[in-house]
Amino acid sequence: MKNWLAAITATAAFALTPGAHAQDTYPNRAITWIVPFAAGGPTDAMARNIANRVAQELKQTILIENVGGAGGTIGAAKAAKSTPDGYTFLVGHIGYMAAAPSLYQRLPYDPTKDFQAVFRFPDTPLVLLVGESSPYKSVSELIAFGKQHPGKLNFSNAGVGSTSHLVAAMFASQAGMEITPIAYKGAGPALNDLMGNQVDAMFDQTNTALPQTRGGKVRALGLTSATAMPQFPDVAPMGAQALPGFQVSTWYGLYAPRGTPDAVVQTMYRAWQKALADNDFTGKMVEQGIQLLPEGQYAPAAFQQFTADEGKRWAGVIKQAGITLQ
Prior knowledge:
This protein is α/β, with parallel strands linked by helices and about 325 residues long. It has two domains: about 30-125 and about 250-320, D-Maltodextrin-Binding Protein, domain 2 (3-Layer(aba) Sandwich); about 125-240, Periplasmic binding protein-like II (D-Maltodextrin-Binding Protein, domain 2). The protein contains 13 helices and eleven strands. The strands form two sheets. Strands 5, 6, 7, 8, 9 and 10 form a six-stranded mixed beta sheet that branches. Helix 3 crosses helix 11 (about 260-275) and helix 5 packs across helix 13 (about 300-320). The longest helix has 22 residues, at about 300-320.
């Protein structure tokens, strides 16, 4: 009788802790990464590239589910409500994981309370661009004109609340000048009008701006990175030119719904560490204008803190610029 009761107790205890066995075999089926933008964009491309490499380490398929709309917040909300079993993750982005809480009056998720950071992707700095025939040859010249002629400089952007919009607002604030933002439906149209001299300047991601600068269609005045980048040999960081301390990047990373077992988070992070050790993989990203980070900044705890800090940082920028979304 005692042996029978002991067996029942042991079985019940095991049933109440399914993660103990599941974590030993994790992952044992396909994993989904939710990308809150349409297929083909920069976030989607970055996610697919990294997912393919991490999947090799996990020896399991990673599926990309594109859930677009409302600047990424619809997809983020879906991820937040998903089962925290280690099979659904969110590919996060500076916009809906840092800026959105201050842009939207009502947000159906909280970036830090509803998610657990898993790992950060390499950063994508931005570059300040002007048209090929622009009279401005340096960041200092552009700032000087902007201060003398408030509101006369038109900065195109990928849409209200986009990274290019927010970075331009931060730039104007730190430079002590007033600019006029011109919103487009995406970075492509915004860049086209810059090349057509319909606007004065634009902040664009280094990876998408690189082909245009090499083709001579636009001129790069300054990088938003802290250090120089070999892909832009004649372009200095803006912080070293005219705005000391000016540094910002478009950042991405992987998040799990809050409640996901820590063992799962660590398994995913270890797979990412192995991918980062592949010099061929990381070298190709660098060639595209993506910037690698110090090793410790990729880790879950560091990325969780970074997410919270970025939320506070952009809250100040958005408030000062008076940017709002419904």
